[in-house]
Design goal:
By secondary structure, the protein is mostly beta strands. Helices cover 13% and strands 39% of the residues. It binds zinc ion. Zinc ion binds next to loops.
Length: 248
């Protein structure tokens, strides 16, 4: 279970932690290959070439000023993730744009910030070769080396990120199956007092807790008092107990 914050004006669960838990179902070591690709693309000192997995790229084929072979795809310099996806899709390596598997906003859940899970489907494995061009003797691109090679297997890459407007990638997982995402729920809350046995529920990020027993009254987290160690003072009349929370 992800860490909860129970404080004045704040009843939330860490989106980053819910992502860590959810991503356990995927192969994150292989998933990191997609992150490596994005990292290569973002570098200003590398050219990135894409080709079939079994294609061996000769150093002379990417000589400065030369013509790139027809079966090798040169990525735009410092391509954004969406540019890269468009190029890889048109070359037949990807099935298309990433699909949003799940998106949760902070305002209608108990997350501390929004989160999203997107899936990119690689239908044909490919190889990534990066080339570093060095400047020598005042001549740009005087020398060059094949700096890195990366094999990206076919399958689905699930990209998990947090944020409300600007998203930050937190983890990338890999799976061979088009699996259904399972993980901790973030839109329902339960409050419980072990002293009086009261149990209350709220949902969709609301702070209005409704009782499970008819004899108990509703209350709002806005009016909660004495926040301590993930609990509040029990709002039930004449109860000196503590109420703890569970988000699910
Ligand atoms: Zn109580």
């Amino acid at each position: 279970m992800a860490t909860m914050t129970v404080a004045r004006h704040n009843l939330s669960v860490s989106a980053a932690e819910t992502i860590r838990v959810t991503m356990r179902q995927f192969d994150t070591r292989r998933g990191a290959l997609w992150g490596d690709l994005l990292h290569f693309l973002a570098r200003h000192d590398r050219a990135v070439f894409i080709m079939d997995s079994d294609r061996v790229l000769g150093r002379d084929e990417v000589a400065p000023g030369g013509v790139v072979p027809a079966d090798v795809l040169e990525m735009p310099w410092r391509a954004s993730s969406s540019d890269a996806v468009a190029c890889l899709t048109s070359a037949g390596y990807l099935a298309g744009r990433p699909t949003v598997v799940r998106h949760d906003a902070a305002h209608d859940t108990y997350l501390d910030t929004g989160r999203a899970f997107e899936a990119v489907s690689v239908r044909k494995p490919f190889k990534v070769v990066t080339v570093a061009y060095r400047h020598g003797d005042g001549q740009p691109g005087h020398d060059w080396t094949l700096a890195g090679v990366l094999g990206v297997p076919a399958g689905t890459y699930v990209i998990a990120s947090t944020g409300d407007v600007r998203m930050t990638i937190r983890a990338i997982g890999y799976t061979q199956q088009a699996s259904v995402l399972s993980g901790p729920g973030v839109s329902r809350a339960q409050a419980e007092c072990r002293t009086c046995g009261g149990r209350w529920r709220a949902k969709d990020g609301s702070w209005r807790f409704r009782p499970e027993r008819l004899s108990d009254a509703s209350w709002s987290y806005d009016a909660a008092e004495d926040h301590r160690d993930g609990t509040i003072a029990c709002p039930a009349h004449a109860c000196a107990g503590r109420v703890g929370f569970r988000i699910f």
